[in-house]
Write a structure and sequence with these properties.
Radius of gyration: 20 Å
Largest sheet: none
Order of helices and strands: HHHHHH
Structural class: mainly alpha
Mean pLDDT: 83
Number of strands: 0
Distance between the termini: 26 Å
């Protein structure tokens, strides 16, 4: 599979998961009053805001993913690398925050109104956020894979592939 295909796949998955997770976050904001779970509504707002920012930024990066002749700063591998490097721990932390409130929402015996609306939605939103973190890590791997062998490293254009001769020469010089 080519580097461009890998990057496009991981960027598209990031975009789709962020969009879906934003819908779950909005639903949690509306359904969860915070009466039974003290921090769930705050974490739902944080989830919704960061998912909105993630899918907007992922769509911008996806637009600059395949422009081999562009000199724009967003076409550099460093922009993509550091963006996903920032997204990875943020979505992991958000997933942990949302999942930390599940025991309040899924407890149908104590502190419950009898209908745990936020139980499945919170579990899904937290899990999707952790999956987003994993996908962002895989996007980092695909970015590093595409700049391997380039003499300029992360300063190179994300869409410019180093030739096989350059890669073999670079690997030979490192050995």
């Amino acid at each position: 599979m080519s580097n461009l295909t890998l990057r496009t796949t991981f960027y598209s998955l990031t975009l789709a998961l962020a969009f879906c997770n934003q819908a779950f976050g909005i639903y949690l904001c509306v359904v969860d009053t915070g009466y039974f779970s003290p921090n769930s509504w705050i974490f739902s707002i944080i989830l919704t805001i960061f998912c909105f920012l993630t899918w907007i930024w992922a769509s911008v990066l996806l637009a600059f993913n395949n422009r081999p002749t562009s000199t724009h700063a967003l076409a550099r591998a460093s922009s993509h690398f550091y963006s996903f490097l920032l997204l990875t721990p943020i979505h992991l932390a958000i997933g942990i925050m949302v999942l930390s409130q599940i025991h309040y929402n899924c407890n149908t015996i104590l502190y419950s109104d009898g209908e745990p609306d936020g139980c499945g939605t919170g579990a899904t939103a937290g899990s999707l956020s952790i999956v987003q973190s994993i996908i962002a890590g895989l996007a980092i791997w695909s970015i590093l894979r595409s700049v391997t062998g380039s003499p300029t490293g992360l300063k190179t254009n994300i869409a410019s592939e180093a030739s096989d001769n350059e890669k073999s020469a670079m690997l030979a010089s490192q050995a």
